[in-house]
Structure formats: C-alpha cells, structure tokens
Specification:
This protein is an alpha/beta fold. It contains 13 helices and 12 strands. The structure holds NADP nicotinamide-adenine-dinucleotide phosphate (NAP).
C-alpha cells in the first residue's frame, strides 16, 4: 500500500516534519510567500492531509480538489481562512493549535497596549530623526496604564491571559463575551458588561474574539464613537473585527487617542494605507504568536493532529468533530 501524502504550505519552525516522513510522503512549499491558490488546489488533489497557515484560503475549490483529503491541520488558533462547514460536509477534519500560543499572544497584545499608550514607537522615531530637542513638560504625553480601566472583548484563553497581566498593573477589568465567565469574575475581579458600556467606560479596549460573521466589523463607526477621546484600542485578534476605515478616521480626528494593531483587514497592510501616515497608531506585522518556542510548539501540535488523523483517530484539537462521525459512517 502506498504511503499517504501530506502537503505543508510553509517550512515549519523547529522542523517537526521527520515525524511525518516516517509515515507519509511529505512535500513542503519552499517559498516564504503562501502558495498561489491554483497551486494549493493542485497540491490538495494529491494530498491526504494539508498542514496550513492562516494565509491559505481553504475554500470549496481546495476541498473539492482534495478527494482523498482527511484533514486540514491549521497552524494557528484562528481558522477563519478555512470553510469549516464545507469541510465538515465532506467529512474532512479541521484542527487548530489553541492554548500553546496564549501567553505569547497576550504578551504582544500588552506590548501594543503599552506602546500605544506611552507613545513608544513615536518617541523612538522622533529620537532617531532629531525630534528630541530638550526635556519639556508637555513633550510626548501619553495615557497612564496603571490603575486604568481595561475592557476585554472576548474573554477566552488570550483575553484571560491579558486580564492576568492587567491585574499586575492594578487595572480595573471589564469584559464582554457571548458567554459569562463566573470563574474569571471571581478570580480576576472582572466585571461582565454590555459592549456599549465597555466601550464607554474603558481607557483601553483589547479585542480577543475570533473572526466570524458575528464579529466582522464588531467595532465600527458607532462603536468607536462610544469610546473616550483618551481611549486606546488594541487589536491582536483579526483585522476585520474592526472597520479599519472607520478606525483610521477616528484616529485622524483624535476621536480616540491611539491604537495598537497586530492585524489588518488586508495583510500585509499596503504601505500606502492612510493608517500608516498616522503617528497615533502602532502596527506590527501579525506577530502575536511569533516567539521561537511558541512557533515550534504550534508546528508540533499541527503535526500531531495530522498523525492522529492519519491513524484514524479523532485529533485532540478538532474543531469539527462532526466530520469524524461522517467519515466513520461513509
Ligand atoms: P478562544 O479561547 O476561543 O477565545 C475567544 C473568545 O471570544 C471566547 O470567550 C468566545 O466565547 C468569545 N467570542 C466568540 N464569538 C464571540 C462574539 N460573537 N461576541 C463576543 N465574544 C465572542 O480563542 P483564543 O485562543 O483566545 O484566540 C482568540 C483569537 O485571537 C483567535 O480566534 C485568533 O483569531 C486571534 N489570535 C491572533 C493572534 C495573532 O497573532 N495576532 C494569535 C493568536 C490568536 P465562547 O467561550 O462562547 O466561545
């Protein structure tokens, strides 16, 4: 019997692929850029498993081509690039890598919060370009983080990890979620509030919901208008959770003080995007989980999911267990 085939859409950190090669033929896309969509479709046609990144659109065309496909193992916790319903219909398992990137992503979200609040990147730029003329009592005044109110939208794993950091800064924590979390309320003193109240009362708003139809443009013009003029918005979730055009206008007109963004509606954000002309925004290139140790753990977890699926087991991080029963019945 021939070995199963696995297509990995980018070279993996820590190279855990030898484990895959023991049981399968493995092809790794050599480029730093994602494989073009046509190439992904072509590779899916010969694959039993795809190990994918958040930049790979796994749509009908890919899933239709993948007649032998058993699993799409996404190396990310978010999987909004995967049409999960379409995969489930075809009995194809979809997995993600939750948990292992929580603390690393929370570190980055908090770094953005601090950088935007205390104008760190702006200060660095000024220092390098001769803008530091002298000490002045009104030079580069920002917002205090300690003792401020933090509103967390989506108190899941990363939202909770951000809340834990906020406790160290003596922050008051408000949260909004579709589910209440009584344990977090008790342990972190987090208060559950409506989204509108959170936006109106928070000095910092940090977004940690997945991107889905219900969360697309969750923060738009109306929501931004509810925020304080001194408020800072942090988005380390997904770009499209925020209406970026509305955000740009709010920042430009100083209707909110600043933003820290790890994600954009279009990634990479075009260099001529008007957002990048503003001083009161800090933008990082989607590096929330980008630490050496975490990326290696994510790769390992995605590899493990593939191995489980190829053994006919239900992978631990399956997001569509229904696909497993469908496959069993088929
Ligand atoms: P998680 O543990 O699943 O947390 C997501 C939270 O959002 C859950 O509490 C969930 O509620 C809540 N939620 C879902 N839909 C909602 C809605 N419509 N309204 C309000 N709350 C809603 O996921 P996580 O590990 O914290 O990750 C969160 C997101 O961060 C990921 O989906 C990903 O897109 C993003 N992320 C970005 C980076 C980066 O590099 N910047 C890295 C990692 C993750 P329930 O408990 O009811 O499901």
């Amino acid at each position: 019997m021939s070995k199963p085939s696995i297509f990995v859409t980018r070279a993996l950190p820590g190279d855990p692929t030898p484990r895959l090669r023991e049981v399968a033929d493995v092809e790794i896309w050599p480029g730093d850029e994602p494989p073009p969509h046509g190439e992904l479709v072509r590779r899916a046609a010969d694959a039993d498993a795809l190990l994918t990144m958040l930049t790979d659109p796994i749509d009908d065309a890919v899933l239709d081509a993948g007649k032998r496909l058993r699993i799409v193992a996404q190396m990310a916790v978010g999987y909004d690039n995967v049409d999960v319903a379409a995969a489930t219909e075809r009995g194809i398992l979809v997995t993600n890598t939750p948990g292992v990137l929580t603390e690393t992503t929370a570190d980055l979200a908090f770094a953005l919060l601090l950088a935007a609040a205390r104008r760190i990147v702006e200060g660095d730029r000024l220092t390098r370009t001769g803008g530091w003329k002298s000490w002045h009592p009104s030079f580069l005044l920002g917002q205090d983080v300690h003792g401020a109110t933090l509103g967390i939208v989506g108190l899941g794993q990363i939202g909770l990890a951000v809340a834990r950091r906020a406790r160290g800064f003596d922050m008051r924590i408000l949260y909004h979620d579709r589910t209440r979390h009584p344990q977090a309320e008790a342990e972190l003193g987090a208060e559950y509030v409506s989204l509108d109240r959170l936006l109106g009362e928070s000095d910092f708003v940090s977004l940690h919901v997945p991107l889905a139809s219900q969360t697309r443009h969750l923060i738009g013009q109306r929501e931004l208008s509810l925020m304080k003029p001194s408020a800072v918005l942090v988005n380390a979730a997904r770009g499209a959770v925020v209406d970026q055009q509305a955000l740009c206008a709010a920042l430009k007109e100083r209707r909110i003080a600043a933003a820290g963004l790890d994600v954009a509606e279009i990634e990479p954000i075009p260099v001529d995007d008007p957002l990048l002309t503003l001083d009161n925004v800090v933008v990082t290139p989607h590096i929330g989980s980008a630490s050496v140790a975490t990326r290696a753990r994510m790769a390992e977890m995605a590899v493990e999911s593939v191995l489980q699926a190829l053994r006919g087991e239900l992978p631990s991080n399956c997001v569509n267990a229904e696909a497993f029963s469908r496959r069993k019945q088929a």
